[in-house]
Amino acid sequence: MGVQGIGARALRKEDKRFITGKGRYTDDMVLPRMTYAAFVRSPHAHAKIKGIDASAALAMPGVEAVLTGEQLVGDGIGNLICGWMIHSKDGSPMNMGAWRALEPETVRFVGQAVAVVIADTQGQARDAADAVVVDYEELPAVVDMSAAMAPGAPQLHPEAPGNVIYDWEIGDEAATNAAFDSAAHVTRLDITNNRLVPNPMEPRAALADYDTAEEHYTLYTTSQNPHVARLVLSAFYNVAPEHKLRVIAPDVGGGFGSKIFIYPEEIVALWASKRVGRPVKWVSDRTEAFLTDAHGRDHKTEAELALDANNKITGFRVKTVANLGAYMSLFSSSVPTYLYATLLSGQYDIPNIHCNVKTVYTNTTPVDAYRGAGRPEATFLVERIIETAAREVGMSPAEFRRKNFIQAFPHQTPVIMCYDAGDYNATLDAALKAIDYDGFPARKSEAASRGKLRGLGLSCYIEACGIAPSAAVGSLGAGVGLWESAEVRVNPVGTIEVLTGSHSHGQGHETTFAQLISERFGVDTDAVSIVHGDTDKVQFGMGTYGSRSGAVGMSAIVKALDKVEAKAKKIAAHLMEASEGDIQIEGGELKVAGTDKKLSFTEVALAAYTAHNLPEGMEPGLKEGAFYDPSNFTFPAGTYACEVEVDPDTGKTEIVNFVAADDFGKVINPMIVEGQVHGGLTQGIGQALLENAAYDENGQLVTASYMDYAMPRADDVPSYNLLTTETICPGNPLGMKGCGEAGAIGSPPAVINAITDAIGNNHLSMPATAEKVWLAAQPGLSQAAE
Amino acid sequence: MYETTYHRAGSVADAASMMASAEDGKYLGGGQTLLPTMKQRLAAPTDLIDLAKIVDLHGISEAGGAVVIGAATTHAEVASSAVINSKLPGLATLAGGIGDPAVRHKGTIGGSIANNDPAADYPSALVALGATVKTNKRELAAEDFFTGMFETALEDDEIVTSVSFPVPAKSAYSKYPNPASRYAMAGVFVAKGADDSVKVAVTGAGQDGVFRVGEMESALSSNWSPEAVAGISVSSDNLLSDIHGSAAYRANLVTVMAKRAVAAAG
Ligand SMILES: Cc1cc2nc3c(=O)[nH]c(=O)nc-3n(C[C@H](O)[C@H](O)[C@H](O)COP(=O)(O)OP(=O)(O)OC[C@H]3O[C@@H](n4cnc5c(N)ncnc54)[C@H](O)[C@@H]3O)c2cc1C
């Protein structure tokens, strides 16, 4: 492919194998004597287990074992953990109920695993799972978060009275209240952030293999962070000590956060493989994915914005209730707190912010991080209330935003974050120009002549990526550090292997990371291979989520490259009898500045390994490792402008133009970045218009298949108009900010602001289905579509 | 999926005798409804008798003022047929709007009407066009064939062999798709017969499957124009109501789609 450095639109190296069907996913792995697992799942949202009769199942052909929660607990397998401690405002720790990988006593959501059948074939396992008789005593269920907190509501966990997990706050309440007392205008808005199902293309899967002789486990699994999986499996679930457990996350077909977590099925597969003495494979079907992959979002918020007489924002007061489902998933506690409320300042200079967050248990699937994780919730709230305030005070929404923008950096917000760099006017200007903001009135009247309601909505989002620094997140309750590691191995022939703790499951690391090496040493990207996803190969890593692989993962590679470069230069200087400071790397060669003396990168690599002639005292080899712990989050930001046409007869919304102007800092591969933005925007538009995980009052997921859960498709979205501006991130060596989630974070409010503008009614909740929009567009029905 | 035994029938008679000797057999058309149902373990036939390779069940022909479509003809074949595009343009639109390309290249007209999903598109066309369903045993008028939600007059071992559509003077179909499944939330087929009789049939909206709207039919008989139906709304009493649309919303869609269908028919 040649030398393709930073900024090149290099085609993705991994695509050949994906496009030709040669990807190797967990379900492609086959081991001798492999068995299959099928889970027996609760059909009830809340019930006591009075007994499990497995006798019929055990007698069926091919069945090796039927295992239950009682055996699991008896074998000492630990309860599932939540890795981020949150304290309530009264200082008490969060109220966490016990979650067991197989539940022996009380099921709390439809789909919860109560037993597993291990059999020779998948069909036999499923047939036998159907034959396991579980005697349930149904209990009343609660799915609505307000209802869950009401007196007399069914109680899920004895540890959480009133189903409240914590009652947390951030910001200065008294100062914020004072701002409201002296406000010239107060805008109020109630917001629902709908519940979503992540739906990666590849469902979750696990293949566990216990080696009786070595007492060693291997787990192939669909993970975004195999080292974190190994850590949690060994430290908390007591499956095996870390050196006796290898976790391999091979090709993984999308995650969107849902594959960060270590779920019951992976734990059970490992445990069962030791129990039966054979490898155990489990592959989720789509129904299981709907019922058991951690869901996303699900907030209800009441918010108020205070303005002074000059329309400057003086205060923001927020009360949020977040539904965490039946159990606390691995990072669930951090999402509606530190990943959400710390971004309530948006792009604006808001002197006073106070936010109260209560999280509750309900008889629904657990909720955790999903593409954006907290930042979409913050952005939707901020950008909806900003738009509403501008309309109320009669200012252009663009000018109202501009007036309140943060202008100088670094900027300390009242909610922990310190924004390092940005230029919010630049992205706003770029978006307004691209969408022809000034020409909108003419387009609106032209649309009206065709019977269509046209609207324009803006969203000026900010988000935080590359979650960091470890010491800071530790002080806020995180159970892990959030650095990244890398190792650069230059082979004797000069080819380069980069081992990274980041994990690619759609992001294209094999290409972008290779571009970084290509830029640095002038070598062909084909001479570079990126190794990831195997705890036996890569020493350690925190994995990929929160758009951290560029800003954190690549920074670790840069640090390792610095060390490799320094050593290579020393060797070259020694061989060419020059001074180290005169060596320059250019086009794959190490040159002595101002002379024609040079050595190819390959010659230097070979010299490092032959070790015939190295500088005095230097160790042979050319291989270096590094850990990188950033000093701050990064702050990608931008303006999204969405223009819609609503058909008032049906309520159908068509997005006729969508401009995304993003500042991602330094961009390595614009094509890959555009792909990330396309995907993110489409997921955000899906949330705004189509997607909703709906439960009935008994806790049955009504939208448990694609017949009822509306995923966005190509014809639901426009051809996007993407622009980038650049302010360099000062916090990392490459100046990168991250681009993986921005699209999903910034787009929902742009869409809803556009529709509410079109129909002249601000009361509209997500998803803005055609029926809701149709109702909201009827004159005199202003509240109907909430 | 539960285990099942697959049979490929070479002729209609062959299929019928395979069915007679099966314990709990099912005919397989394009498999676009039956196979997903089996994969979800909601159906467990002991034997699947595949009709797709029976030559007599394929093809589109025109004779004596009618277009005859073999039961195993796929939606894609109907959508792209020159005969259908010229004689029954509404039917071509309808077939071209079913599901996605993969579904259209496998799913068949016989399978669709035998299944009679209340949100399926074809039933509206058969009723509005006054089609006749031919089976290996008899002929049935469309309105006698569809008997309720997922219910038809077919006996368990009966095979749909073809559907015969009298060529109308005008016809058109307008559908508001369900955003998730893309089946019809409300689909309205309007047809003006060669004898000037008007029929308006609605799918997707009714609790009992396809139904006709008499008031729209008489309005259109005297004034074939979108305005004629614009003010006519169906009662929401017997309409479906679900997370995608209330009965009242579906009633609105029926009027809007009827208007658009008449406009499209010209
Ligand atoms: C993703 C998706 C989207 C879809 N969207 C739409 C849509 O928008 N609109 C729509 O109308 N439909 C839609 N469908 C359904 C599709 O049109 C199916 O093709 C149709 O419903 C069934 O036809 P089939 O040939 O696949 O029949 P099968 O699935 O093979 O069979 C269905 C039933 O009919 C019986 N059967 C089949 N052929 C015969 C015959 N000749 N005689 C007697 N009985 C027979 C079978 O025994 C079975 O009970 C969709 C399906 C999918 C999977």
UniProtKB/TrEMBL annotation, chain A:
Signal peptide (UniProt feature, chain positions): none
SMART domains, sorted: Ald_Xan_dh_C
Instruction: Please report a single Pfam family linked to this protein.
Output: MoCoBD_2
Highest rank taxon of the organism = Bacteria
Q: Where is the Aldehyde oxidase/xanthine dehydrogenase a/b hammerhead domain?
A: 20-140
Keyword entries, A-Z: Molybdenum, Oxidoreductase
User: Is the keyword Membrane in the record?
Assistant: no
Check the record and name the InterPro entries matching this protein. Ald_Oxase/Xan_DH_a/b (IPR000674), Ald_Oxase/Xan_DH_a/b_sf (IPR036856), Ald_Oxase/xanthine_DH-like (IPR016208), AldOxase/xan_DH_MoCoBD1 (IPR008274), AldOxase/xan_DH_MoCoBD2 (IPR046867), AldOxase/xan_DH_Mopterin-bd_sf (IPR037165)
Q: Does the keyword Oxidoreductase apply?
A: yes
Name the Gene Ontology molecular function terms of this record. Answer: iron ion binding; oxidoreductase activity
The protein, known as: Xanthine dehydrogenase family protein molybdopterin-binding subunit
Per the UniProt record, the source organism is: Roseibium aggregatum
Q: What is the lineage of its organism?
A: Bacteria, Pseudomonadati, Pseudomonadota, Alphaproteobacteria, Hyphomicrobiales
Automatic annotation (TrEMBL), chain B:
> Where do the FAD-binding PCMH-type domain residues begin and end?
1-170
Identify the InterPro entries for this entry.
Answer: CO_DH_flav_C, CO_DH_flav_C_dom_sf, Diverse_Substr_Oxidored, FAD-bd_PCMH, FAD-bd_PCMH-like_sf, FAD-bd_PCMH_sub1, FAD-bd_PCMH_sub2, Mopterin_DH_FAD-bd
Q: Which SMART domains match?
A: CO_deh_flav_C (SM01092)
- What domain of life does the UniProt record list for this protein's source? Bacteria
List the keywords (alphabetical).
FAD, Flavoprotein, Oxidoreductase
Q: What Gene Ontology molecular function terms does this protein carry? A: FAD binding; oxidoreductase activity
Q: What is this protein called?
A: Xanthine dehydrogenase family protein subunit M
The species this protein belongs to is Roseibium aggregatum
Q: What is the lineage of its organism?
A: Bacteria, Pseudomonadati, Pseudomonadota, Alphaproteobacteria, Hyphomicrobiales
